[in-house]
Amino acid sequence: MLAVAAYAIALAALSLVEYALGRPLGEPGIGRFVGLTAIPLSLSAFYLLALFTFGFEGDLAARASMVPPRLFTLPITTSALVGWPMLYGTVSVALLAAAARLAPWPEGVHVQAWVPLFAAVVIAWAQVFIWTAYPIRGLRVILTTGWLIVMDFVLLLGHEFEPPAFLMSVILTPLLPLAYITARASVARARRGDVPEWRGLSRRRAPARSRGSDRRPFATPAAAQLWSEWRQHGWTLPVWVAFVLPFAAGLMFIAGDTPVFVLISLISMLVTPPLMATFVGAALGKASARGRDASGIPPFLATRPLTSAAIVMAKLRVALRSTLLAWVLVCVAVPLALVASDSLSLVVDRVRSVRDGIGTPRTVVITLLIVAWLMVSTWKRLVMSLYVGLSGRPWLMRAHITGTLALLTALVLASDWIHDNAGVVLWNVAPWIAGGMAVVKVAATGWASTRLERGGLLDARTLVGAATGWLIAVAAVYALLVWIAATPHVPRQALMLIAILIVPLTRISFAPLALAWDRHR
Amino acid sequence: MAEPIISLANVTRRFGAKTALASVNLSLPRGGVYGLVGANGAGKTTLIRHILGLLRAQEGTVRVFGLDPVADPVGVLSRIGYLSEDHDLPTWMRVDELIRYSRAIHSGWDDGYAEELRQTFTLDATARIRTLSKGQKARLGLLVALAGRPDLLVLDEPSSGLDPVVRRDILAAILRTIAHEGRTVLFSSHLLDEVEQVADHVTMIDEGRIVLSEPLSRLTGSHGGASLDEIFVVQVGRRLPPEA
Prior knowledge:
The complex is a heterodimer of chains A (521) and B (244).
Chain A: H1 2-21, H2 30-52, H3 69-72, H4 78-99, H5 115-131, H6 139-161, H7 165-172, H8 175-191, H9 199-205, H10 211-214, H11 221-234, H12 236-254, H13 259-284, H14 299-302, H15 308-340, H16 344-358, H17 360-383, H18 386-390, H19 394-454, H20 460-485, H21 492-502, H22 506-519
Helix pairs in contact in A: 1-2, 1-4, 2-4, 2-19, 4-5, 4-8, 5-6, 5-8, 11-15, 12-13, 12-15, 13-15, 13-17, 15-17, 15-22, 16-17, 19-21, 19-22, 20-21
Chain B: E1 6-15, E2 18-28, E3 32-37, H1 44-52, E4 59-64, H2 73-77, E5 80-83, H3 95-105, H4 111-120, H5 134-147, E6 152-156, H6 164-181, E7 184-189, H7 192-198, E8 201-206, E9 209-215, H8 216-222, H9 228-236
Parallel strand pairs in B: 3-7, 3-8, 5-6, 6-7
Antiparallel strand pairs in B: 1-2, 1-4, 8-9
Helix pairs in contact in B: 4-5, 5-6
């Protein structure tokens, strides 16, 4: 409720300022819409969704109900246990949707009257899916995500066809009490400790003899830790990608004869792994997979004879394996989708036209580079925020999220103004900005390296090896950039700065320091 | 004189305004069972966490096997078997997976001993740890702590909240570790009767300060054969609450 109130107050304050000034803040355009409406609205909605479904409390993929067990012991009826959170949740998102009418929207777009009711139905049924216990691990994630995606489509269709508010109210209103009844039955069952079991699957997965003891022993402690990390986090990204890819490919099947839609669908499929990695990366940074309260390394892991660097290395390797597996799925799904939707010829024609313009070697290299960049970007998004989660400091995590969102919002808000007023100036200043960032990056890495060596986390030989590897990677990226993009308008010094900035090093260096900071408080 | 296995010198630790440990000096030689007793909140767990390197001394020094547990966690932890008060184990693993994982992590792991303990404790190898009872988790934690054949066994309130059968298992494991292998055990407890059963040396801590640290025989002798509970009342001025 505080988040909704804060958002509404911020919007109201902004409206007052604009009224006082007699003009809108910033130029009307996509930047203003994204910065003032899309980002805050989306984040607030997701926050309320997670809050009122107890999504912060535990493992979303678990079979058991997400209602915290401590609530089952309260001296209240199941009706109250379900009813009050559902009431708060539905009212909150409905108010948020209503408050969104105050926000700036692009011309021709407006929040229709039935949208608050629709938002209430979305969260009510999300609560049903999340509070229900399931026979198979991970089924909750699939069903809830599917529900949200379907509702997203419904909202888009509603915007497109503008159904009468009365009709939508007639359709949506009965869904609320139905959600309550369903949630009440599910929570009552969970309160009795009744977690359904897929008996056949259970029998197949529980052989008479232990499988673990028959397995070959781990060769090294690092192999054991890698296994542990993989079992906890490794499958998350590939599963999410496998789930989202069909939806991303959907447009190809719906409008496969329209080049622009095929291109949008193809791009959607290719950006699915890095986009999903942004969300999955937060979980990888947790030292424990146990919900919101799992900040910090658990005592069990902290008291194993493993160095902090070894624990971090296991996470980096798991991230790499997850990335590769996710991209295997993409590499299989894209050709399949193109062939099955009969869109392959459109893509081939487009590639041929590019090849005719820049030649076959550059076409091949640029294509491979784009795919490689997307793969590296996926891995980077998994590991770039490791140091935040491993620090075990909730205030640091909140500050990181808040700071990132504030910066993103400010950049988007300013984008239109920059484009119209300061583009040329920025172009001239950009090398200095990039140079400054490169200096900060190298200095920060140097500081981290000193601390790693003095703290005994990494020896000098390892640090020198890592630095050498980074330099080789930077040189390789620079050489590629020079071959592709060196022109009189793009000086080579700028390409060198770009290479320095895009090859990851600094934030990964902070990960073992952050873990040690948490491990030895 | 042999180097002490655990050495704390003027260790102080504060959490905000509260002083959890105040200039603690403790030196424990190798071999024997050391009982660390005190009321809840006295500083027992804080002291143990310093020994394990989970807390960094704000003042003073901590040495285990002559090493700084913060600077050299692997050197120290590879020789320690630890059972935490809340039996913190990865609940997603199965019993056999935890054993397989621990076997790789601990260089001194004894497979035969681990299997012997698993059968003695009647732990189903295929059971998920999250499905185990509190007592079963305690036994499993003890298995992991013992099967690595540690030089130092650290048990933090090992029998808290457990039934008498599991408590008996834990005490028997302590005695076996010492009797047959001559290793060192440090265990904290507010159950003084248990400490009296197995400890050779007792350290009393109250409000972050070491009240006394003596061999048990000398302690009881100097107090006219009084029980540890009565000695605690004399030294600290109050009786420890009974186990709920």
